[in-house]
Write a structure and sequence with these properties.
By secondary structure, the chain is mainly beta. 0% of the residues lie in helices and 44% in strands. It has a 5-stranded antiparallel β-sheet with strand order 1-2-29-28-27, with no helix packed on it. A 4-stranded antiparallel β-sheet has the order 3-4-5-6, with no helix packed on it. Strands 7-8-9-10 form a 4-stranded antiparallel β-sheet, with no helix packed on it. The two termini are 34 Å apart.
């Protein structure tokens, strides 16, 4: 295993006895490169592929959909050469309760073509063989042009939909024109049969990413979509998808590329990278009127974002990656840590110093030690890295 301990760029002084302030441990991550021949690394997902109870890594690469087996991290191809153009996104989640993920992917990545659905965009459901290390069968579904992101979303207990978000509205030119057709695909009992499709929203004429948020009860999960005009929220009504539930999030009107949800004790927040492929990392504290705090403005082509409690503080921290050299000529990943539960003061650490041109990243506890790890794929650096979390948990 190739490893090295990454220490903090900035060291926080621990302030004893100051009310509301956290005692922050020094973040420590051990690096393991599990693939140094990634073509692009468009999209990552985590889930149990082979049913052994361990989360595996799935990757939508340029021409192949692959998974890496937890433990030895051997690479297996699920599907390849699905379309003329590149694969671009992947969704993996156990939607049947059998302990193994169901997988869908988006391909035919041709963002300059916004009208011709034969030349732009595709959606595929992959059917698992008895041996998941072999090639999977492919079911091709209807689609809009410029398919860009997808996630499995729970609408009610035991019922899931595949939500697909294109980059552009159909026929758009230069990011202007029709609204993006956000679609929910309802899987039939036999996935080879026709899938019901429901239009969830068409208010944003250009989007980039979205997040799915669970909440108490069985009414389903919320969706936050970031786009050129701001953020749209969507939630199921009476356990079902209806387009009338989509609404703009008041007070968030900047162009947004990446978006993720997190919590600070009793405060929910959205974290964003602004604008699309932008340089700013921001936090919106959610309430009657979202309160924006800018955490950083030095990224170049910020393209990956996550929120989770990596340091054991009981509240979420933010991880952001960028893919083009910044003003210091570097790519990498940063960690932003709140100093207290107010969400108004944050400190920044460097997780990766110029070895990861981050195309995508996800957070998951891969080894079951209770500490979430960072998994990232790099475009220009052509690599897939696990940043094993070795931090000693902090406290309030």
């Amino acid at each position: 295993m190739i490893s090295l301990v990454i220490t903090a760029l900035l060291f926080l002084m621990q302030v004893a006895g100051e009310p509301g302030r956290f005692s922050i441990p020094e973040p420590q991550f051990e690096v393991q490169v599990i693939d140094d021949r990634v073509s692009i690394g468009y999209g990552l997902a985590i889930g149990d592929v082979n049913g052994n109870g361990r989360p595996d890594i799935l990757l939508a690469d340029k021409n192949q959909i692959v998974w890496y087996r937890n433990g030895d991290w051997q690479r297996f191809v699920i599907a390849e050469n699905l379309t003329e153009f590149d694969n671009v996104c992947i969704a993996a989640r156990d939607i049947t309760g059998d302990g193994q993920v169901e997988v869908a992917v988006g391909a035919q990545w041709n963002p300059g073509e916004t009208s011709d659905q034969e030349r732009s965009g595709s959606v595929h459901y992959l059917i698992r063989p008895d041996d998941p290390t072999e090639l999977w069968d492919v079911v091709t579904l209807p689609h809009e042009p410029t398919v860009h992101r997808m996630r499995w979303v729970r609408t009610e207990q035991g019922r899931y939909s595949l939500v697909v978000v294109p980059l552009h509205g159909r026929g758009n030119v230069g990011g202007e024109g029709e609204g993006v057709q956000v679609l929910a695909y309802l899987p039939p009992e036999n996935p080879r049969d026709p899938w019901e499709m429901i239009l969830l929203d068409a208010s944003l004429n250009m989007t980039h990413n979205f997040d799915v948020i669970s909440h108490e009860g069985d009414s389903g999960e919320f969706i936050f979509i970031g786009g050129r005009q701001g953020v749209v929220t969507i939630q199921p009504y009476d356990g079902k998808w209806v387009s009338e539930t989509a609404q703009s999030l008041r007070g968030v009107d900047r162009g947004i590329g990446e978006i993720r949800h997190g919590t600070l004790g009793g405060i929910d927040f959205l974290t964003t990278i602004e604008p699309m492929h932008g340089n700013e990392v921001a936090v919106y504290l959610l309430g009657d009127e979202p309160e924006r705090h800018q955490l950083d403005d030095s990224l170049h082509q910020g393209h990956a974002l996550a929120a989770a409690d990596l340091l054991g503080l009981g509240i979420d921290q933010i991880v952001a990656g960028w893919r083009n050299p910044d003003p210091e000529g570097k790519v990498g990943i940063k960690l932003y840590v709140p100093l207290d539960e107010s969400g108004t003061r944050w400190e920044m650490y460097l997780v990766d110093d110029n070895t990861m041109a981050t195309e995508d990243l996800v957070i998951a506890d891969l080894d079951g030690d209770g500490r979430p790890d960072i998994i990232a794929a790099g475009r220009a650096t052509g690599n897939l890295i696990i940043y094993w979390n070795k931090t000693q948990n902090g406290s309030k």
